[in-house]
Description:
Layout: E1 6-12, E2 15-21, H1 24-28, E3 33-37, H2 43-51, E4 69-73, H3 79-83
Parallel strand pairs: 3-4
Antiparallel strand pairs: 1-2
Amino acid sequence: MLPIHRATHILCGTTCLILLIIKLENIMQARSILLIASGEAKAEAMYQALFGPITPTVPASILQLHNNVSIVADETALSLIIKKNLI
């Protein structure tokens, strides 16, 4: 289990969201990582994370260095990657 750096609760109407903040170095120590994305608004982020340069401005780009990342994403989240024929 990864150490949690910080946890935040946000109440939106009757829904409570729990945000967990985990440091990147802890994430990179995980045996496996599951990246989940949905919707067209995530298309640029998915492209940058998976095919852009590894940079602090795109924290998920560090996942390119991990050897066991699984991705669950809908077609719209992958639309830019599909458009560029990268998958």
